[in-house]
Write a structure and sequence with these properties.
Length: 200
């Protein structure tokens, strides 16, 4: 797997980043002021991080938090792609990261198109963090079948076909092979920007 990893941090350099406030209000990580925080507040924090030389600012990904976990997780989770697109226009240097994008919630071809487009719009600043997800009720609400615990890493075998082999992508084991085949088959149609590295 080491051969597929691309570092965006120069050797010997200390790098730091942060999950942005306001865009998600999980009790575990949010501060009390965020309950009344605005998009303008989130933007000011992102711009301050940009000015201070942060490597990245991050946005979380959830779609439909069910009532039971909502008590701790809240139901405020801005859309990851839309929020990163907005932030691309509000910042100039800091990288924009999904922390993490739940791969099973979106067809991988659609996700590849979304994040490749974000990468172009942000002038190559996207860090595409991908994970498995953990909220079972959310999987149910979205009609995602399978056991979220059975995850495969298929970057070695498939994503190189569309020029994004440096990404580690995890999908539900049941769907991974079919979805990887679709990415490889339709990769050329996603967009010309998929043929270059998304991270440089």
């Amino acid at each position: 797997m080491a051969g597929l990893t691309v570092s965006v941090v120069p050797d010997g350099k200390l790098a730091y980043g942060m999950q942005l406030p306001v865009q998600s209000l999980s009790v575990r990580v949010s501060q009390p002021w965020e309950q009344t925080g605005t998009v303008a507040d989130m933007t000011k924090v992102a711009q301050a991080a940009d000015d201070a030389g942060f490597l990245y600012v991050a946005v979380c990904h959830h779609v439909a938090i069910p009532p039971e976990p909502a008590e701790m997780m809240s139901t405020q989770w801005y859309d990851t792609v839309a929020t990163l697109g907005y932030l691309a226009g509000q910042t100039t240097r800091t990288r924009l990261m999904s922390n993490v994008f739940i791969a099973a919630y979106e067809h991988p071809l659609v996700a590849a198109k979304q994040f490749a487009t974000l990468d172009v719009l942000s002038n190559g600043r996207i860090i595409f963090g991908i994970g498995a997800g953990h909220v079972e009720g959310e999987f149910d609400a979205l009609g995602v079948k399978g056991d979220p615990g059975k995850i495969v890493d298929f970057a070695n075998s498939r994503l190189g076909a569309i020029g994004v082999s440096h990404l580690q992508v995890r999908l539900l084991a049941r769907d991974a092979q079919e979805q990887c085949d679709q990415i490889a088959a339709f990769g050329a149609e996603v967009g010309p920007h998929l043929t270059r590295k998304m991270l440089s």
